[in-house]
Amino acid sequence: MNRTTRKAVAELLARLNPELLRGWRAEATPLRLAIALLLSAGVAWCIQLAWGWSAFGGAGAAAFAIFSFVVTPIRIVGAIAEEHARHTWQRQRMSALSPVQMMLGKAFGATGLTDLAALCALIFWGMGVYLTEGAALGLPVEQLAEALAHRRAAFPLDAWLMICANLFARFLALALAIRNCDRDRSKAVRGRSSVIAIQLSLLLFGPLAVLQMARPPAGTDKDWSEALWFGFLPMDHDAFWALSGLAFVAFAACWCWCAARETLSGGRLFAFEAVVVSLGVGLWWAGTAYGALDTAGSALLETAYSPARLTTATLLLALAVTAYLWGVAERADRRSAREFLAAPSLRNAPAWLLIVALATAAAAVHLVSGAFYESGEYGYFQLNFWVVSLLGFVVRDLGILFLVLSGRVKRWPELVALASWLVLGIFVPSALVGAGASAGGFDLHLLFSPVALQEPTVNLVIGVVSAWLQAALVVMWLVRRGQLDRKSKHGIGNP
After folding, report:
1. According to the model, what pLDDT value does residue 493 have?
2. What is the pTM of this model?
3. Which residues pair with 233 in a beta bridge?
């Protein structure tokens, strides 16, 4: 590329996205790019000489996964934290950048070298798959051709899902970095945002890749040819999994765009990304559960749940898990938490509160549909009222989180909330089970258990009352703190 062409490309990028051009100029210099290419080629050559093409492909896949889930989030969060340390972040917020320009510029501008290395790893992975000889797989002769054909046929989809995983982790890390760095100026925000981004990427996107890899090949006894997502979209086609990966990327991009829009506007905006992301992930898992159960036709589950009712249960569980994850990931600072307690409104409500509202709606649908379903040997309370207990414990735990965030704990308040969740949700019930504690035939561990199937109705009612009593105590504490904040704000009781 001559000088004139490079200048024309630079001018085009400057018009389209000046932030992206600035990041590339600072990160991806020609010398650094050349060094990255030489190092990648040297490492790949050594692996091929030592272990052959089969290990060459495996090493490329592992390297691409490490770059996607670990290196890229750390680089993005580190770049945002460095801009805060150099006091250049505020100037960019006052610039004429649009949310899309900021999102794309920050997501791809600081990772030029990492992206080049990841691209090399992806190419090496493909070379290892297509250049591997049958003998290197160590299989019997009659299975070599089939194994090689299946491995090469699965590579395009596997590579596409890995690319989606890279984009998913990238946008997720940037959203967390923007939100947490804006709300917390401490040095710990860099490590916290990186760790949370890595964990969320693995928890939310990982099962998608695992399910796709566990999918049996077409023509086997366990074929998924009849599995339909919500009854109308076939799950055995590669297009379904490819679109699923793209949907997860869209969820993360929506989250990232909302974070960029919020930081550029300089104010807290309605967090509708909580609704989009949590409901989107929940519906994907619910549709997958529907198709899997409808195809399997398990007699044990059919006596308790139909595929349609399992859909609402899966949606509820996905929303509950997402509420926990979102509450820890998007940590509100102490000031915003206290402002919400003093003057609650939908506009400044925490994102996890919106997700809990969605979970409540899913629980209501589950309860109503259960009234018209033939329960067989199980009773209505045993099959349906576990969702009421689950909601109570979710409200209790997230209320504790918000109570800690609005309190005086300044360093790692998420760990304090997590410790309380572990004590109330695992340690206490486990100790009661181990001690065999009971009162009048009632096992005391049910007071802290969100799911207790096949129990007498009276035990389930006691468990529901216990769950919501604990939730009510936490909510009352929050209301009391809000009243004290309002009095303090208006100077009531001050001399």
Report:
1. 45
2. 0.83
3. 229
